Amino acid sequence: MVEKYVQKTSKSKVMFERAKKVLPAGVSYNIRYFDPYPFYTAKAKGSKLYDVDGNEYIDFWLGHTALILGHSPFAVMNAVRSQLSNGTIFGTSHETEIALAEQVVKMVPSAEMVRFTNSGTEANMYATRLARAYAGRDKIAKFEGGWHGGYDALHIGVKYPYDVPESGGLTVGALQDTIVLPFNDFGGVEEKLKGEKVASITVEPILGAGGCIPAEREFLKSLREYCDKKDTLLVFDEVITGFRLAPGGAQQYYDVTPDLTVLGKILGGGFPVGAFCGRRDIMERINPRTYERPNRSFHGGTFAGNPITMKAGLATLKLLEDGKLTGKLNRSGDRIRERLREIIEASRIKAQITGASSLFNVHFAQKELRDARDVANADRVKLLEYNLWLIAHGVFFLPTHNGALSNAHTEADLERLFSETERFLKSQRE
Ligand SMILES: Cc1ncc(COP(=O)(O)O)c(C=O)c1O
Fold first, then answer.
1. Cβ < 6 A, ligand 1 pocket
2. Model confidence, pTM
3. What pLDDT, in 10s, does the model give residues 266-277?
């Protein structure tokens, strides 16, 4: 497959040689690198990416799952176009940020107040600081395999083995103040937190980068009860699940309401975004009219609430508000998982399909996967081969990462995924 990929992507290869001189690994985000080199995208529309060699790819990666309407959807482009000639960043307050905050409050059950950032990482960083300020505690907790962006306090325990620091440059203090908990194992959570007082427990309702593993409903309910008992804030990182699992995100889907919610991706309608929102009494800690240093929790940013992102986000959420689109995508997601399972069963190759709603992932593993440790034990080499097979045949998943659906995907797109998966599995038996 490497040979076939290299044959099809000669211009990308030249571009990679150029890129790696000025961008480490030739990319702007490490996960975008894959062997032998990544293709470089020239344009994107609907459900498709087109690379510099003119190859077309059905895109199941969708800008890190941000593009629930597909690439450059008409309604969003129109909203952005109308804003472009009226200013791209005001650096002052404006009506569209109010409108988008109102829309978030309307849709997300836990949201009484909102603040916007430019990425999910930033939103998690400010939410964590806010939780610490509110609770008056230093320690926080998160889960094995949970990915919340590159912020020190949460960039811990992401990849197996979990005791190896994820990055150089993390201080001993950062490592000591974060407790890493087992996912989908409430008994294990209680055990780990015995004698501890943590400001917050941050959880992804579906582990995204950790293998697309849904939390069990009872597990989230138990976390809610635990946090109530211990005066700990429950933080849902809904950067992936927000506005995708349901109009109100995973908290609506699971019927469990966190104290704070972190949003991103879909919220920006294809433009850089993040947000954190939640209970009024917690969010008010940011208010300089009410709280002075050191009790106030800081939040801000040059591009926070910029009118381009706010317009794009508002146009997107308006289309998701009534739940029809999410319902349709959820049904397609069910069908994809079911069909892929049938294909795998018929092939007699051991693999598992994880995910929920319009998110899914394939893992070459014998048994059902309940957490990121199980994912770490699956056959990653075969997964990379499968992903490269798909890429060489015009179906794009960022290697090893989950797939997502958008409103732009067609029946033909899904059929192509099924037929290429069948062909790959057949090639493994020959
Ligand atoms: C669940 C989750 N939280 C946070 C982040 C970080 O968001 P960003 O990449 O916008 O900083 C991501 C990114 O993939 C994510 O999946």
1. 64, 119-121, 124, 147-149, 204, 208-209, 237, 239-240, 264, 274
2. 0.98
3. 999 999 999 999
